[in-house]
Design a protein that fits this description.
Elements lengths: L1 E4 L4 H12 L4 H10 L17 E4 L9 E4 L26 E9 L12 E3 L4 H19 L16 E7 L2 E9 L8 E9 L2
Antiparallel strand pairs: 1-4, 1-5, 2-3, 3-4, 4-8, 6-7, 7-8
Length: 195
């Protein structure tokens, strides 16, 4: 099996907290992504970040790492990008997921950014050990997790731990990558508004 992993550093733990603390509206996420250099401001007043798919965390030409974005944040009752609301129907499929590792048989990963670790001979124990280490780091950063909570990104993950932070849920998960037709398993951190 082959595994690629993205190290969960202190800086990225800080970004996870920042994602969770950001008001769930388009303007707030645009400002956050622009501030960190993951998006450029649009001159036409349009959105800086494209939701509904992978989004590079840097210049795509440099094969940057990425996050997976669900539906646009905001309120379904208005087009105003500065509005965040607490209505569950407005956020049912809105999330941000930071992949920490992908694990697959015979996968050719292509060009990867420098910070990504490649292990062509990874075993399942190596993959789950990475999950366990991420869980330890997140417990240190976020405190005690909640009792089991449903992860909407994958309704039946192999493993998951969820924390509540303000108006958001932060979930560490391990399961099939449904966004890539389940050809690999992945470990990631999902942030979504709390319903």
């Amino acid at each position: 099996m082959s595994m690629i992993s993205f190290p969960l550093t202190a800086q990225w733990l800080g970004h996870v907290r920042e994602f969770a603390d950001t008001p769930w509206c388009r303007d707030a996420f645009d400002e956050l992504f622009v501030r960190h250099g993951w998006a450029t401001p649009r001159q036409d007043g349009g959105p800086a970040v494209g939701w509904m798919g992978p989004w590079p965390l840097g210049d795509p030409a440099d094969e940057a790492w990425h996050v997976v974005l669900g539906e646009d944040p905001g309120c379904a009752d208005t087009d105003d990008p500065s509005v965040a609301c607490d209505e569950p129907r407005c956020h049912e499929d809105s999330f941000l997921a930071l992949p920490l590792a992908y694990f697959a048989e015979g996968e050719s990963w292509g060009a990867l950014p420098a910070q990504v670790v490649v292990d062509e001979d990874a075993r399942e124990e190596d993959f789950t050990a990475l999950y366990d280490e991420a869980a330890r780091l997140l417990r240190t950063c976020l405190g005690d997790p909640l009792p089991r909570a449903r992860l909407l990104l994958d309704p039946d993950p192999d493993r998951q731990i969820t924390w509540e932070r303000g108006k958001s849920l932060v979930t560490l998960f391990l399961g099939e990558n449904l966004h890539h037709y389940s050809v690999e398993d992945w470990i990631g951190i999902e942030v979504r508004p709390r319903h």
